[in-house]
Automatic annotation (TrEMBL):
SUPFAM superfamilies: Glyceraldehyde-3-phosphate dehydrogenase-like, C-terminal domain, NAD(P)-binding Rossmann-fold domains
Ranges where the Gfo/Idh/MocA-like oxidoreductase bacterial type C-terminal domain occurs: 259-340
InterPro entries to which the protein is assigned, alphabetical: Gfo/Idh/MocA-like_OxRdtase_N, Gfo/Idh/MocA_oxidrdct_glycsds, Gfo/Idh/MocA_OxRdtase_bact_C, NAD(P)-bd_dom_sf
Pfam families per UniProt: GFO_IDH_MocA, GFO_IDH_MocA_C2
Signal peptide interval: none
Name by which UniProt lists this protein: Putative dehydrogenase
GO molecular function, one term: nucleotide binding
Residue ranges of every copy of the Gfo/Idh/MocA-like oxidoreductase N-terminal domain listed in the record: 105-222
Length: 517
């Protein structure tokens, strides 16, 4: 395969090795181009992964000053490609030139809740050394320290990055959503590899910036969609690509987890006043980039922060990345054309709640450009949570009574595919697809795969070049939630909402003074 130098007719050869599950790697790019490594993803769509981002059209300068136009349009890409091997996609992410004989020196920012689980998974990898841990909550920090007694302890992640800058290779970001970007972008600027919990960031603009930064820096990245590495999601991706259900007509995503509303979604409005935080909790550090609100022991830390616009991204933002992942990968989706939200009526009619909280129920509708896998030129993808459910006729394709509370359903011209969250997918009607066997797949740990990628042994399943555009579409849904009943047209390249520019204020936010990044 060859790529053309932007300023000449000379083509640079790329020698591609390997194939099969997970794709191959481009092991060599001619020294004249000045680039040493690149990852090749097989079976992915060029436009879906990079065609819509604002980095399209940029040039990269090689070590000897040669400029390469990595972001050609799909048409130009194909025109200048001498040979297309299994429809590969060059993702311009350098492989970490790790030494497999050395351990990965890792730090953990956020070690309570999901962060505690993350820490345990990294500890379980034999080639990981936990150098330092960080948490604003002393109780959580001390419990984590019992697992890694040799790790240095920090309260402030900024201090950790400064004092440990030469002592670590990678970081996991497991703090509330509003601080994801600040921690992750700071680490990327240092050249560190990043594992970031979902959603990637709080705002659309942050996601775009973080995606671009990770690509430019050439670091290894992984979004915390741990089930993306599981057999269920990987089987679903394979079956979608194999086309068992024909052309895709519609997609229905849902998360109606029992008890979630009570556990995570504070109805609001915000209580008046507050109280002093406990001695072991640094509320200023916990708040970070967000506005400093009075502390309240029952509505923020440790779990209900997700309900607040200052800190979380609502239920669709929190869980959407899990449910959407296999669909996005399998279909090779691009940025949406539009998004629309229908929300809980009591929330929509309450100015106080709309100013602060996320609704307890949402129904989102995205319209995506169609592709070779869709029945028409556009594809509608719907999301349901809380009091909203997929249509009964859709649930009846499996079972209205036993329909999985968290799942994706793809309806095609020749059948349907149900992807229950954390479980194996099902082709429907089952009687029609009895001959389709579950593929043989090795067990894969999402965290360990990240570690192995950092050590140069493989590539990640949910790197930011893939997960960024998906998360961007999901978080664009939270913009629609704040402007319910409006169809928001989306210009992904310009990052504009041309028919409702008043909604663009929700694409980014102003950081608290002293927390700018």
């Amino acid at each position: 395969m060859s790529f053309q130098n932007k300023n000449s007719s000379k083509a640079y050869d790329v020698i591609i090795e390997g194939s099969g599950d997970g794709g191959g790697m481009a092991s060599k790019i001619l020294s004249e181009a000045g680039l040493s490594e690149a990852i090749v993803e097989e079976g992915c769509d060029f436009d879906a992964a990079i065609g819509h981002r604002d980095i399209d059209g940029e040039t990269y300068t090689g070590k000897n000053g040669t400029e390469l136009d990595w972001f050609l349009s799909r048409r130009k890409f194909l025109a200048t490609t001498a040979t297309l091997i299994a429809s590969p996609l060059l993702l311009h992410i350098p492989v970490f030139a790790g030494n497999s004989d050395k351990k990965l020196r890792h730090v953990c920012v956020g070690v309570g809740g999901m962060g505690g689980h993350d820490l345990q998974r990294f500890i379980a990898h034999p080639d990981v050394e936990i150098v330092a841990i960080c948490d604003v909550d002393d109780d959580r920090l001390q419990k984590a320290a019992e697992l890694v007694p040799n790790a240095r302890k920090y309260r402030d992640w900024r201090t950790l990055l400064k004092e440990e800058s030469e002592n670590f290779d990678s970081i996991n970001v497991s703090v509330p959503d509003h601080n994801h970007f600040a921690v992750a972008i700071s680490a990327i600027k240092m050249g560190k590899h990043v594992y970031c919990q979902k959603p990637m960031c709080h705002d659309v603009s942050e996601i775009r910036k973080l995606t671009n930064a990770a690509i430019k820096a050439g670091i290894v990245s992984q979004l915390g969609t741990q089930h993306a590495s599981g057999k269920g999601d990987r089987t679903a991706v394979q079956w979608i690509k194999e086309g068992h259900i024909g052309k895709i007509k519609n997609v229905y995503l849902c998360s109606n987890r029992p008890g979630a509303t009570e556990a995570y979604r504070f109805p609001g409005p915000r209580p008046v006043g507050g109280q002093d935080p406990p001695a072991g909790l640094d509320w200023n550090l916990w708040t970070g980039t967000a506005p400093l609100r009075p502390y309240n022991p029952t509505i923020y830390h440790p779990s209900k922060w997700r309900a607040w616009q200052d800190f979380g991204t609502g239920w669709s933002g929190d869980i959407g990345c899990h449910i959407f992942d296999a669909v996005w990968k399998g279909m090779g989706l691009q940025a949406p054309i539009s998004v629309h939200a229908r929300v809980q009526e009591s929330w929509e009619n309450s100015p106080e709640r709309r100013a602060d909280t996320w609704p307890q129920s949402n129904h989102l509708t995205w319209v995506f450009p169609g592709n070779e896998m869709t029945e028409s030129e556009e594809l509608t993808v719907e999301w349901f949570d809380g009091e909203f459910y997929p249509p009964e006729e859709v649930r009846a394709l499996f079972s209205v009574e036993n329909y999985p509370a968290e799942s994706a359903m793809l309806v095609g011209t020749e059948g349907a595919l149900l992807i229950p969250h954390t479980k194996l997918p099902v082709l429907l009607p089952e009687s029609k697809f009895q001959q389709v066997q579950y593929p043989e797949m090795e067990e894969r740990d999402h965290y360990h795969h990240f570690v192995d990628a950092c050590l140069g042994k493989t590539k990640t399943e949910s790197h930011f070049a893939q997960a960024g555009p998906m998360t961007e579409a999901i978080i664009l849904g939270t913009v629609a939630i704040r402007e319910p009943q409006k169809v928001l047209k989306w210009d992904a390249k310009k990052m504009k909402i041309p028919n409702h520019p008043e909604a663009e204020k929700y694409l980014s936010r102003k950081y608290r003074k002293g927390w700018e990044v």
